Amino acid sequence: MRTASERLLLRLEWRVVRRLDGRLAGGYRTAHRGTGTDLAGLREYVEGDDARYIDWNATARLNKPHLRVFTEDRELTERLGVPGRSKQDVLSELALVLARLFGRGGNRVGALLYDTAFGNRAVRTVSPGTGRRHALRIGAELARTTDAGRGGAGRGGAGQYGGTTDLAAMLDAVGKIAQRRALIVVISDFIGNGDWERSLLRLAPRHEVVALRVIDSADDELPDAGLVVVEDAETGEQLVIDSSDPLLRARLAACVEDRDTSLAAGMRRAGVPIHRIDTDADLATALIDVVASTRRRRA
Description:
Low-confidence stretches: 26-37, 71-76, 80-86, 149-163
Largest sheet: 6 strands, mixed
Mean pLDDT: 75
Distance between the termini: 47 Å
Strand content: 15-25%
Shape: globular
Number of strands: 10
Structural class: alpha/beta
CATH topology of the domain at 4-27 and 76-216 and 262-298: Rossmann fold
Helix content: 25-40%
């Protein structure tokens, strides 16, 4: 009988990974400069690839442009940070899809997760590996984090959440682990993540860092529904508020604008591109847009 992680990965492979095949090829920098030393094979040319590496003999034989692929071009370590618990389903799917995609290309993929449930406040690490089995391992760790964060059966519920995510601690942990140049994908909603900018400024010059910000419109828009109970997704703290209060609604809108402005400014200072992933968006389409934006940025 398949585990929950296996069922999720199988669904994502059919609905997302197959659609992304070929779209991500050439979408990241090699970990080493130059063209490599060992020819690993050929692959079909994808828009945005470096035309200098086209194999013209294979292109003429196959009637389609093909590139030479070198072993060095594949030796890139991806680390997928998943600090937030809000929008956990989308966060988990993004991490699992990226782990599977990069792992299939022969790259070693690791993951860092931040535990805040049941009194824990620590970074958990999944060491880098390749292949489907390793992607499933990452999926299992994501599922364990999700179950704990939601107060799994017999474990006490929301009252035992242990605090908010420390994104700075995660970025510092990545910096200590990633000795070679790596592609670091930070997946978060970037709500309540503290003073992370200094850590990001230290990390970005040594590695290629991309931020995926998972957005739920409900986070920014307060429905006009009178008295409502709101709950912090990470701490479990609950408050009763009057959602019809115009002053409250105006303050919320101002806080959202200030938060977004500060986030964008911090990413610009660090030179890190940030991409919005809406919870109701098609995951494959969203990731294709991220790759296209990355290529335009490098052009």
